[in-house]
Amino acid sequence: MSSGMSAAKTLTCDVAIVGSGPTGMTLAHLLGQSGVNVILIERNATTVTQPRAVSIDDEALRTMQALGLDRDIIADVMLDYGSNYFTPQGICFAKVEPTTREYGFPRRNAFTQPKLEATLRANLARYANVMQLFEHECESVTENESGVLLRLRHASGDVLVEADYVVGADGARSALRKVIGANLVGSTYNQKWVIVDLASTKERMRQTRVMCDPKRPFITLPGPGGIRRYEFMLHEGEDEERAASPEFVRELLAAAGPDADSPVVRRQVYTFHARKADRWNSKRIYLAGDAAHLSPPFAGQGMNSGLRDAHNLAWKLAAVVKGQMGAGLLATYQREREPHAWALIELAMNMGRIMMPTSERQAWLVQSAFRLAARFVPPVHAYFAQMKYKPKPFYADGFIADDAGLKISGRMLPQATLETHDRTRLRFDDVAGSGFAIVAIGVDAQALVASVDVSSLGLGAVPRIAIVPQKINLEPTMHEGIVAGRDLDNHMGEMATRTKNMLILLRPDRYVALAMRVEQAQTAGTFVEMARGLVSRMK
Ligand SMILES: Cc1cc2nc3c(=O)[nH]c(=O)nc-3n(C[C@H](O)[C@H](O)[C@H](O)COP(=O)(O)OP(=O)(O)OC[C@H]3O[C@@H](n4cnc5c(N)ncnc54)[C@H](O)[C@@H]3O)c2cc1C
Question: Which of the residues 3, 230, 431, 462 has the least number of beta carbons within 10 Å of its own beta carbon?
Fold first, then answer.
C-alpha cells in the first residue's frame, strides 16, 4: 500500500461519508448546512435509477423540510394514502387510514426513490463545503487515534482522504461494518418475494391493497404519477428465475386484478432481512441506514429509519467537529437510534405475519378477530386506522434530561402551524431553523420565553419561540427577539394546558432534550441550569 500512496492525491475533510444513497445524501445536506467540511464518496456514476423504496412517512418529510427540500420532493410524491387488508374471499377486514398531521405532513405517502435521490443530489451543489466524489470506490479504511484514512479507487488514479470522522452509509453489504468489526444479528427472514413495478396502472383504488391469502399473499401499492407496484410472495422451492420471468409475472398480475396487460418496468426477486449491526461505531467511524439495520419492507420503514439516523447523527457530528460539545455526545447516537430502528423492524415482522397467514385456519382466526374488533371495540379500530401501533419517535436514553415524569423529554415535538400577531401562518420548523431552539408553550409563553437566556451554553444562535394554546389569544405585548404564535391546529395538545407553561430545549433533529413545567418567568433560571448540566455531561 505504501508505494502506491505517494502517487495518490490527498484530500482532507471533517467528515467523509461513504455511500450516496438517501441516508448519505441527507447527512451530507445537514452537515453542509452546519458548515462542516464533507466529502461524499459514491462508487456509482449516478444515484439509483431503479425503483426501490416506495413509501415515505411524515417524519422523513419533516427531515426533508429541514433540508429546505420538502416542497421540491412533494412535487413527486402522492400524499396521504392508506392500506386496506383483505381476506382470501375479498372482504376488507382492516383499514389503516391515519388522518393526523401531527408532524406537519400526512403519515403515509408514495414516492419513488430515484426521483428523491436525484433531488437530493442536485441540491447538494448549494454547499461549497460538500465535495461529491462519484465514481470513487472506497477500497480501504484505516483508523487511528487522530483520524481516519480512506483509499479510493478512481479511473484516473487513487485518491486518499484524511477525515476526522467517517460515516458508513454504504448500504446493506456495508464494508465499513466489517472495518469496525460489527456483525449483523437478528433473524434472516427467509421469505422471497417477487417485486413488479408498473409504468401505469388500471387499478382505480388509491389505497394499498393487501391480500392476506395463505395461497399467495400479495400487496399492491400506489405510486406518484399513476404508477403501481405489486409484490407477490414466493413459496418455498419456487424457482427464482421462473418467478421473475415475464410469463409468470403476467399470470400473477392477471390473477391479482386489472393490471394483466399494464407495462412492466421491472421484475425482481428479493429476500428480505430483519437484522441490525451489533455495534454501530468505533471511535471515529459510524454506521447509518441499511449499513446499521435491515428491515423487511412490510412497514415501509427501511429508508425512513435511515433518514432518522442521518438527522440524529448530523447535529452531533457538527457539534463535536465545531467543539461545541465533547465527543461523548456521539456515544448517544446508537443508544438513541438502535432501539427505535429495531422497534420498527419488529413492527414490519408483525405486519408480515398478518399479511402472510400460514394456513386457511390461521387466516380465518386473525381476520375474524380484526373484523369483530373493528365492529365492536372502537378504540381497537382507531388503534389500527390511525396507525397508533407505529412506534412513536421517542428516545428513552441519550441526550435527554430527566423531566420528572412529564414524559415529554425524548419525544419528537409535534409541528405546530403558528398564527402570529399579524395573522401570518408559519410552520414551526421553518421558525426553529437548523440548530437548537427554546420553546415555551402555554398561556404565558411569550413572557416566559423572553426571560430565558441560553447564550452562555455555547449552542450557537438559539431562536426563542412562544406557542400559546389554540383557544387563547396572543398577549398583545411584543417581546423583542421572540417569535410568538397561536397553535392553530392544537398539535401541542396536552402540553399547552391553561394553568401551567412548559419550557423546552429542542434539539436540531426536533426531539425534546429537556422539558419543564414552569409556573413563572423567575423559575426559568432553573431550566437554564438544567440545560447547562445536560450539555456539560457530554464530555
Ligand atoms: C423492494 C424494496 C422495497 C422497499 N420499500 C421501502 C419503503 O417503501 N420504504 C422505505 O423506507 N424503505 C424501503 N426499502 C428500503 C430502502 O430502499 C433502503 O432502506 C434504502 O435505500 C437504504 O438507504 P441507504 O442510503 O442506507 O443505503 P443504499 O440506498 O443502499 O445506498 C448505499 C450507497 O453506498 C454505495 N456504496 C457501497 N459501498 C461503497 C463503497 N465501498 N464505495 C463507494 N460507494 C459505496 C452504493 O453504491 C449505494 O449508492 C425497500 C427496499 C427494497 C429492496
Answer: 3
Indicate which residue's Cα is closest to atom 9 of ligand 1. 300
Domain 80-108+190-271+357-390 matches domain 417-537 at the CATH topology level: no
Here the cell at position 218 is 400479495
- 209: CB partners within 8 A, 6+ apart: 83, 84, 86, 203, 219, 220, 257
Amino acid of residue 221: L
| Contacts of residue 89, Cβ cutoff 8 Å, sequence gap at least 6 | none
pLDDT of 393-438, one tens digit each? 999 999 999 988 888 999 999 999 999 999 999 999 999 999 999 9
CATH architecture of the domain with range 417-537: 3-Layer(aba) Sandwich (3.40)
CB 288 within 8 A of CB 501: no
**Please, what CATH class does the domain formed by 80-108+190-271+357-390 belong to?**
alpha beta
Q: Are 324 and 312 in contact (CB under 8 A)?
A: no
Residue 377 pLDDT more than 50?
Answer: yes
User: Which of 92-101, 128-137, 310-319 is predicted least confidently?
Assistant: 92-101
Residue whose grid cell is 437548537? 436
Q: Is the distance from the beta carbon of residue 222 to the nearest atom of ligand 1 less than 6 Å?
A: no
Pair type for strands 9-18 and 159-168:
parallel
Tell me the residue length of the chain.
Answer: 539
Q: Which residue has the cell 457538527?
A: 318
Question: Mind listing the pLDDT tens digit for each residue in 463-521?
Answer: 999 999 999 999 998 899 999 999 999 998 777 665 678 999 999 999 999 999 887 77
Domain limits, the chain: 2-76+111-185+276-336, 80-108+190-271+357-390, 417-537
CB-count exposure of residue 404 (10 Å: 0-12, 13-18, 19+)? exposed
Poorest-confidence range of 129-133, 265-269, 294-298?
Answer: 294-298
Nearest-CA residue for ligand 1 atom 53 is: 52
pLDDT surpassing 60 at residue 3: no
CA of 297 to the centre of ligand 1 (A): 12
Ligand 1 near 475 CB (within 6 A)? no
How many whole angstroms from 172 Cα to the centroid of ligand 1? Answer: 7
Task: Look up the CATH number of domain 2-76+111-185+276-336.
Answer: 3.50.50.60
Residue whose CA is at the smallest distance from ligand 1 atom 11: 303
Q: Quote the CA–CA distance of 341 and 362 in Å, as a whole number.
A: 29
CA of 58 to the centre of ligand 1 (A): 19
